[in-house]
Amino acid sequence: INGGNTVSTDGGGVPTQLPGTDAVALYRAKRDGLNILNAPSVNAANWTVDCTGPVNAGDTMTCIATSGEYVTICATNVNNRCPPQPNNDQVVVFNPGGAGTCPQGFNSPGGQRPDVDYSGGVCYNTERLVYYVAPVDVADASKGGRLMLYNGAAGEPNRNPVLVANDVEDLQAAYCIANCADPAPGDWTNVPTAAQEPSIRIVRLGLLTRTPAEDPKFSSSPQSATAPAATLENHALSAAPDGFRRRLLRTTVKVRNNDL
User: In sequence order, which ranges of the chain are alpha helices (DSSP H)?
Assistant: First the structure.
């Protein structure tokens, strides 16, 4: 998960999205890691990596320090000094503000530790996978949605989303900012501010699914008449009980680059 930076966006940032739902971006390695030869901090403009694999301008890289902290950066330029040149390394240039070939803003400081020396760590070329809920009918949100997945950076054109699951009503994220040690209830928010992002300790993800059609026996039952409206995190899905049967899947993830 893009730890430290905002994981979700309410109703925006991806192709046609069911109103009120969140989108979640995850990153996965595309090939073997490159050893970091010199990277004094995330605020340094130039990092040097070995020649295990190619790095190109615009590549997204997730880099992990020997102490476990990680940062996601985007290469704005690469000075390739690999063989046959004698240096046998690559200088990766990136703009901490995100510019040029990196409009995604991956380089903006979030939960990353600016005082960490990443030298001796590993960088992986990564791809961005975005999960979101698309409406079955754009004109009628009550018809529910479908969980979709597409590969691309923020602001890029739609990259042929693929269907993951039907009959999905909602995808939501929440963030624990402080006091997150069990059994403390924790300070949770659904929309972290820029000032709160470096303090995110835990991300909670929820996926709400429902049956393809309403169950008439359930909709007329006493249980349905007294059931609360379907709500996930800060999003209320319905104003009145209905005949759909629902299942909620929920998981929590510790943000590993915040002293955890």
Answer: 216-219, 222-226
Q: Which residue has the tokens 């400081």?
A: 109
Q: Looking at residue 141, what DSSP letter applies?
A: G
Whole-number Å distance between alpha carbons of 152 and 25: 10
Provide the token pair at 190. Answer: 């659904």
**CA-derived radius of gyration, the chain:** 21
pTM of the model: 0.73
For 18-67, how does the pLDDT look when each residue is reduced to its tens digit (9 = 90+)? Answer: 888 888 877 778 778 889 888 766 556 678 889 888 888 878 788 888 87
Q: How many CA atoms lie within 13 A of 236 on its CB side?
A: 6
117: closest CA among 52, 48, 212, 218? 48
| Per-residue model confidence as pLDDT tens digits over 71-93 | 777 777 788 888 877 678 888 87
Give the residue, 118 or 172, on which the prediction is more confident. 172
Residue 102 in this model has a pLDDT that exceeds 80: no
**What is the amino acid identity at position 207?**
L
CB-based contacts of 211-218 (< 8 A; 24+ apart in sequence): 211/167, 211/244, 211/245, 211/246, 212/166, 212/167, 213/244, 214/242, 214/243, 214/244, 215/243, 215/244, 215/245, 216/243, 218/243, 218/245
